[in-house]
Amino acid sequence: MGDNMLKKILSVISASVIMMSAVNVSAETISEEYSRSYVLMEAETHTVIRENNGDKRVKMGSFNKLMTVLLAAEAMDRGELSLETELVTSEHANSMQGAQIWLMPGEKMALGDLLKGVIIGNANDACCVIAEKISGSEEKFTELMNSRAAELGMNDTLFTECTGYYGDDAQYTTAHDAALLLCELSKHNELTEMFTSRIDELKGGEVQLVTANRMGHRYKGSVGFKCGTGPSSGYFAAEGARRDDICFVTAVMDCPDEDIAMALAKELLDIGFDGYMITSPPIPDDLPESILVKQGCAESVRLAVEPVGNVVVSKGSAGNITARISLPTGVYAPLKKGDKVGELRLYIGKRLLKTCDICAAEYICKKDFKNVLSEMLKNLFCF
What letter would DSSP give residue 173? Predict the structure, then answer.
């Protein structure tokens, strides 16, 4: 199939065909043609499975709203808000343009309904009401957005407002940063029903909501998220799905067409579920229980290794994980409990999967005159 024909097929492909497509196009091929960047990441370990220009800055468009949703969910976790909390619409929120649920100044609406407006309807006015409730103003909320992004390791992301509609030229992110946000959102099961809803309504049926994210209610195991664009950005698809004990998220950024973005997102999630698994390797039996201490008040120190946790590997390869222990023949006192003395490295072939610190499991003081004298007296009386 020639490149021109492939472009024509992908540009007109319908949503239903995307979900059930028999056209076998690799993620790499689609990306080379259409997507500036993408990342496929396992949500628990943040393991990157596939990426293309994952650290390249792109305009985020309405992806911005997912940080607003996350901060609302975290406010509920802290007990500051609930889905039933009524929020009041300000003049500023009422002035929002673009997608909206037509909130009037002074109008009250429950946070749960406002979140439906944001998640399903992409509503800018609802987004602003939530932002003002959490931080007092949109400006202060934007500061919170950037602060939370930094905490999540989104080191190449900038938010300038809460909707993605007004600050499109100034705001940016990367596919890798976007995936980190999706990993955090995937923890909030209370949002899954909204994220995967196809339609809903507000104000007694006066406002009809229809999602643009067709994958949310069609992809097996979907936990939802969002697709969309912005006034000057390309199309994006931010998707996640959980099956059994593993969750994958993918951020596909800056595509020329929504259908192409969603086709690539589906392809990437399929790659994750078809080819990878999560496993927890055991601590090797030959890890020493202790090592020699030099110039210490004890001859040895007990060892502890930090929890290995889970790692992501290709299906069928878990039995090929090998461990390499790096420890000195001895360490010098003093030692505090938790001091690093070595490393446990896990590999598949030559690929490093994970590094775990090996630490002192107890305090060992440095031998001084009192210790030496005490030891001499002890030996004397024992004799």
Answer: B
Distance, in Å, from the CA atom of 51 to the CA atom of 178, rounded to the nearest integer, reads 12
Which residue in this structure is represented by tokens 């080191």?
Answer: 155
Q: Chain centroid to CA 192: how far? A: 15
Separation CA 130–CA 149 (nearest Å): 18
Six-digit token string for 267: 């392809």
- Domains belonging to the chain, first-starting first, are 24-278 (3.40.710.10), 290-370 (2.60.410.10)
Q: How far is CA 171 from CA 2, 156, 230, 294, in A?
A: 37, 10, 11, 55
Share of the chain residues as helix, strand and coil, in percent rounded to the nearest 5: 35, 30, 35
Q: Are 40 and 180 in contact (CB under 8 A)?
A: no
Pairing assessment for the beta strands 290-294 and 330-332 based on DSSP bridges: parallel
CA distance 149 to 178: 10
Least confidently predicted of 130-139, 158-167, 337-346: 158-167
Give the other-Cβ count within 10 Å of 89's Cβ: 22
- 6 falls in which pLDDT band (50, 70, 90)? very low
pLDDT at 381: 62
Give the residue from 186, 166, 90 showing the smallest Cα distance to 131.
90
d(CA 173, CA 58): 6
Residue 342 pairs with which residues in a beta bridge?
Answer: 358
What pLDDT digit, counting tens, does each position of 243-277 carry?
999 999 999 999 988 999 999 999 999 999 999 99
Length of the chain (residues): 383
pLDDT at 21: 35
Count of C-beta atoms within a 10 Å radius of residue 350: 5
The answer to whether residue 27 scores a pLDDT higher than 80 is no
267 or 24, greater pLDDT:
267
So what's the pLDDT on residue 150?
A: 98
